[in-house]
């Protein structure tokens, strides 16, 4: 069995810096790269991004929806992206945001976290809004296979606040209760547990307490959504060593040039290098 996800992520962040780049083959980006909005254009886009970035950054995050929209041909491209990115040394966080119950959640977990699946990534995003306990199959399979799950807690989209900032009877927000549940799962892990949370870099400073989490924090919102390195410091404070800032458009818009993509990723990575200074 491979080493636990928390350990592998910590090592990747130490070696390559704390940066996650999304591979989001949005139609507008395909057009900007002068590619057709079809499976062939998708393949050219995604594999160019892998060629440029998989040897440079800690984590690549393909957005599954943009592959699925092309049917079986798109899913076949996604399989290649996962395999080639991992072969080049990047960890792959597959952005699928799955959430269900019982045997259905188990099936999703087997599809994306079982070592024998062609879609197996190093970690996946999951939705806890059928209850954190509903994620047990994915959390368990991820632990068994050395993989991870990143749970939506306080997302960067403005609509998320309507639900995620609601208070429970305990007085904690829903977002905070998800962070706390992940912390309980990760208790005793070293250096980090295999359950992380999504917390946008655009949220209010002090809104969430990460002091007990002991797991990774995926922080979308850097760049195109307006968040800066200073925002990361303000929002996450002492939890910065666990933070994996995520960006996509700020890097991908520099394609289809491999050198352009690499240079853009290096620029963001260098900006983040001062986070802990």
TrEMBL record:
InterPro entries: Aldolase_TIM, OMPdecase_AS, OMPdecase_type-2, OMPdeCOase_dom, RibuloseP-bd_barrel. Keywords: Decarboxylase, Lyase, Pyrimidine biosynthesis. It is an enzyme of class 4 (lyase). It catalyses: orotidine 5'-phosphate + H(+) = UMP + CO2. CDD domains: OMP_decarboxylase_like (cd04725). Residues 18-264 form the Orotidine 5'-phosphate decarboxylase domain. Gene3D superfamilies: Aldolase class I (3.20.20.70). Pathway: Pyrimidine metabolism; UMP biosynthesis via de novo pathway; UMP from orotate: step 2/2. The active site is at residue 97. The keyword Kinase does not apply. SMART domains: OMPdecase. Its EC number is 4.1.1.23. Pfam families: OMPdecase (PF00215). Belongs to the OMP decarboxylase family. Type 2 subfamily. HAMAP family: OMPdecase_type2 (MF_01215). This is Orotidine 5'-phosphate decarboxylase. The lineage of its organism: Bacteria, Bacillati, Actinomycetota, Actinomycetes, Pseudonocardiales.
């Amino acid at each position: 069995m491979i080493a636990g996800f928390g350990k592998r992520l910590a090592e990747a962040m130490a070696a390559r810096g704390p940066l996650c780049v999304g591979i989001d083959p949005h139609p507008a980006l395909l057009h900007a790269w002068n590619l057709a909005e079809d499976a062939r254009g998708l393949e050219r886009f995604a594999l160019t991004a892998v060629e440029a970035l998989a040897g440079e950054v800690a984590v690549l995050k393909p957005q599954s929806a943009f592959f699925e929209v092309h049917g079986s041909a798109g899913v076949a491209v996604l399989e290649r992206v996962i395999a080639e990115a991992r072969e080049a040394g990047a960890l792959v966080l597959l952005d699928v945001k799955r959430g269900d119950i019982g045997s259905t959640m188990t099936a999703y977990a087997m599809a994306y976290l079982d070592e024998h699946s062609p879609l197996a990534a190093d970690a996946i995003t999951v939705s806890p809004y059928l209850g954190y306990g509903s994620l047990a199959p994915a959390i368990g399979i991820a632990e068994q296979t050395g993989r991870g799950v990143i749970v939506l807690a306080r997302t960067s989209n403005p609509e998320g606040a309507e639900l995620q900032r609601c208070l429970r009877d305990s007085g904690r927000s829903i977002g905070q209760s998800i962070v706390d549940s992940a912390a309980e799962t990760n208790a005793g892990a070293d250096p980090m547990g295999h359950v992380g949370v999504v917390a946008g870099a655009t949220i209010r400073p002090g809104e969430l307490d990460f002091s007990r989490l002991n797991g990774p924090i995926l922080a979308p919102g850097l760049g195109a959504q307006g968040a800066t390195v200073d925002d990361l410091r303000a929002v996450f404070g002492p939890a910065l060593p666990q933070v994996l800032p995520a960006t996509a458009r700020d890097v991908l818009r520099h394609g289809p040039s491999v050198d352009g993509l690499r240079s853009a990723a290096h620029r963001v990575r260098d900006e983040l290098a001062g986070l802990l200074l």
